[in-house]
Amino acid sequence: MPNLKIIPIKVGTFFQYRGELTGEPRRVEKEAVPFIMFYIDGAARKVLVDTGAGDPNSASQIRFHSPYVRLPEEEPATALKLATGLDPGDIDIVILTHLHWDHCCNNHLFPQAEFYVQRSELYAAIDPVPRFRNTYESFSAGTVPPWAKQATRWKIVDGDADVIDGIRLIHIPGHSKGLQGVLVETRKGLYFIASDAVPTYENFNTGSWIPSTTCVDLESYYASFAKIEKLNATIIPGHDSAVLNCRAYPED
Questions:
Q1: Three-state SS for 17?
Q2: Which of 53, 16, 34 is nearest to 214 (CA)?
Q3: CB-based contacts of 245: which residues, under 8 Å, 6+ apart?
Q4: Which of 85, 141, 153, 155 is the most exposed place for a label (fewest CB within 10 A)?
Q5: CA-to-CA distance for 35 and 144, rounded, in angstroms?
Q6: 70, 12 in Cβ contact below 8 A?
Q7: How far is Cα 66 from Cα 61, in angstroms, rounded to an integer?
Q8: Inter-residue contact 40 to 184 (CB < 8 Å)
Q9: How far apart are CA 72 and CA 57, in angstroms?
């Protein structure tokens, strides 16, 4: 089994009622919720999962999204360097779990990379249902979405697929039509980067699954939960601050 590690990299913070992530009644105060990229260390090629949200002071971010913050050390290029010693130009592969704004706004920083995305997600991002036009910063919202702003070497995927040894894409629609998680082989077994299918640890427990309120297809969401459970992998959520308590997964 490949001896891979997953390094979470914080690239900003937004503020949200936890109930919007867990389906519970809103609590009194909004909570700080991280944007996270993940670097997969030890693979035959240099692999990054997601690229994070854009400049919080940019016109598109101010127009489409609630305020969020990014410290200087959380600038994606800087954060990547601090966590891994790599520059963006070193990255060979970027896996985009989906094309919502907070997962793909910094694609332009990785000029040498091939970008893996589900075909169904790309189609959904081109013409999303009205509720998610701003979430994708879509053409129909009157702008050019972040994933379409530069020449990109796309690797279009249909369903589950191997990327390289030890790294496999798992199609888990529901939160979005083409959401994909990343299954990683490590010395301590399988780990699964679940992205926004499991935004917090509270969303996924055996026999008790809680979809996020951001959901395009609830029936598919529950089917994806069942699929995730059958992986028998350790889950790494997409937006839980507790993920950042460990420098790498698995821990040494």
A1: coil
A2: 16
A3: none
A4: 85
A5: 22
A6: yes
A7: 8
A8: yes
A9: 13
Write out the two tokens for 16. Answer: 């949200």
Which residue from 212, 134, 220 is spatially nearest to 177, judged by alpha carbons?
A: 220
Cβ burial 231-241 (10 Å sphere, 16+ → b, else e): bebebbbbbbe
Question: 3-class SS at 161?
Answer: strand
Tokens representing 158? 């249909």
Question: What is the reported pTM?
Answer: 0.96
Structure tokens at 235: 């889950």
Q: Tens place of pLDDT for every residue, the chain, 252 residues?
A: 678 999 999 999 999 887 788 876 666 678 899 999 999 999 999 999 999 999 999 988 889 998 999 999 999 999 999 999 999 999 999 999 999 999 999 999 999 999 999 999 999 999 999 999 999 999 999 999 999 998 899 999 999 999 999 999 999 999 999 999 999 999 999 999 999 999 999 999 766 899 998 999 999 999 999 999 999 999 999 999 999 999 999 987
Alpha carbons 180 and 68: distance in angstroms, whole number: 25
Domain boundaries, the chain: 5-245
Distance CA 79, CA 70 (A): 11
In the three-class reduction of DSSP (H, G, I as helix; E, B as strand; rest coil), residue 163 is classed as strand
